[in-house]
Protein: Dioxygenase TauD/TfdA family protein
Amino acid sequence: MPETHALNPSLGVEFTHVTDPLDEKLVARCAEALKWRGVLLIRGLNLDDEQQIALSSKLGEVVSVRGKRIFPISLDPSKNPSAEYLRGTFHWHLDGTTDDDVPVKATTLTARHVAMKGGGTEFANTYAAYENLPEQDRKRYESLRVVHSFAAAQLRAKPDPSEKELARWRSLPEREMSLVWRRRDGRRSLVIGTTADRIVGMAPDEGRALLDELQDWCTQDRFRYTHDWQVGDFVAWDNTAILHRALPYDRSSERLLHRTTVVGDEAFG
Structure:
């Protein structure tokens, strides 16, 4: 019978002694863990691509990226044609803030190769961070709206782009949404991260300072878990409320993670 323990008091569950990752009872427990704890870990599960897709499909509909349901996470352009843009993943972010009305529900990763140095993944729980804000701050933030953009994220990763690169980034649409996401189940989370460019109606410097302050609040140790990858590890997380980032590693590293993406069912509030 699989056993569980918390990865951090504020987020995460590790399952141990897993013999059948597709067992319906285990899947139900995994779904509950994702909803209430945000991050799920099973060390050394060693799923192949078909097994990873099968397990992910039990958590929801798996979307195809460039026609495939397994997407390689690598800085090697021969393995990932989007490797150039993965530099943005070294900064805290939520997936889909600039692309989708309904963001990705969950993401899963299986480690195929790991970096010799660095290359971990960090997670931070914005549900817990919001709940622990002083009441006056929660009231203040409820009415604020934030503009998210692809350009904001890329400028963090590459602050000195060429004019052509900057024009291409800025040609992509921006998206405005509430800073506080009011969920249909009554919970609240914060929609921030590297794509958060500015706060509507606030002076740029003041808005930037507030967004940076909130990100520092959300990513403090008590709301954060750092995962050091081992080959075969399986990790899934609730992309709608769990900020995440990759820790730096050498571009020549063979680090390779296989990702699946589970589509969402609730639009940004």
Summary: The two ends are 39 Å apart (CA to CA). DSSP finds seven helices and 16 strands in the chain. Residues 3-262 form a domain with the Double-stranded beta-helix fold (CATH 3.60.130.10).
